[in-house]
User: What shape does this take?
Amino acid sequence: MSSVRVLVGTRKGAFILSADGKRTDWKVEGPFFAGWEIYHLKGSTVDPNRIYASQSSSWSGQVMQRSDDGGATWNPVDNKFAYAGVPGTHQWYDGTAHPWEFKRVWHVEPSLTDADTVFAGVEDAALFKSADGGATWEELKGLREHGTGPKWQPGAGGMCLHTVILDPSNAARMYIAISAAGAFRTDDGGKTWKAINQGLRSQYIPDPTAEVGHCVHHVAMHKARPDVLFMQKHWDVMRSDNAGDSWHEVSGNLPTDFGFVIDVHAHEPETVFVVPIKSDSEHFVPEGKLRVYRSKTGGNEWEALEKGLPQKDCYVNVLRDAMAVDSLDKCGVYFGTSGGQVYGSADGGDSWMPIVRDLPAVLSVEVQTLA
Amino acid sequence: MTEGVQMIRVALPFHLRTLAKIEGAEVRLEVAAPVTAGRVLDALEARYPMLGGTIREHGTGKRRAFMRIFACEEDWSHESLDAELPEGVAAGREPLLILGAIAGG
Assistant: This one.
């Protein structure tokens, strides 16, 4: 029987939640790396026992961990993330030039074809690659040297490269997103990059339709339809039907189009999930109600999903990497909150249950569907 | 000045002991005289490579901002890593204390 393993990164450690295919009885293991911030951990689809984790703290900086047994044991791997050449400057919050400085790894993305190959999106924004299971890291410098780097600026969380999407149909193509620069695409395995922000409109930058400077919060793709992308921007939910060459807004009837997470149903490429957040000034769900919104039409028409979720006195946030879907039938959907709850749905979002209620603030959620 | 190879005692913060899977409160390291914080960290990182970058930065080699170094009840955080440590540490009577700054939660 199939089973699922949910990998949860929190402000104070990592947790692994596991269940059989019914997804009703859950085993909670952890904390792993207790006391450290775990921005992200993710397993390889090639070898599900191979999991990479980003471990960091303000005191001791960045550590990278690797498990080869599904998270039972871990070993540190290389933590040297050296920018290639002289990294130059980006914009600081006040518009002045600020030197590029490595701070942490926000996202790890294992290769779809090789368990030893993994990408790391870092702050200050850059993309690194390891081809030896994390033993060494090398920057794919073509992104940072795109030419617009001096115009990139940090969002409230820092100038982070937080999203890495690999195209399952084209090994040379990948997408990344940076707050606050925007989305970029490579078609040559990371040597050169194109800013793909046409159609985005951001009122908080001097030129609302500039090539870069947009605070993209997250991007999602369905693997069966890799040219269609969905984006949760700072404000606005967007869609592209041409691999990011242009975007159009699909916020439709959402109560607010500010938010962080966005994800796509495992079996229905037009079914999309978001969690609207009240505003960029009030980072919690509107009206004290935790509601996931689902569109079955690829955007514009959204329905509130609230069965099993708190509908009063709830003021949590759901961060950009804190939602994931499994590939069971029916599709499971999972998300974690700033209040330490991890909710799961075993029926595509129709109903929800808390898997665990009292973890540290959740930073990321990934799920592995195991045979 | 202490001469030869000295057995130095180093006390690490909880999280770094956990990271390096160190049992016990202190690590003992052989360090060639003159004993400096830099040489102690060289020996520490050679034995425990996973501690590289956690006390001093990769690349610059600078002490990380929230890490503190104390020797014989003196704050050694702002001394050069090449400065010779007090005789009590160099002779192994006192541990070199590496601490995380009291900050945040």
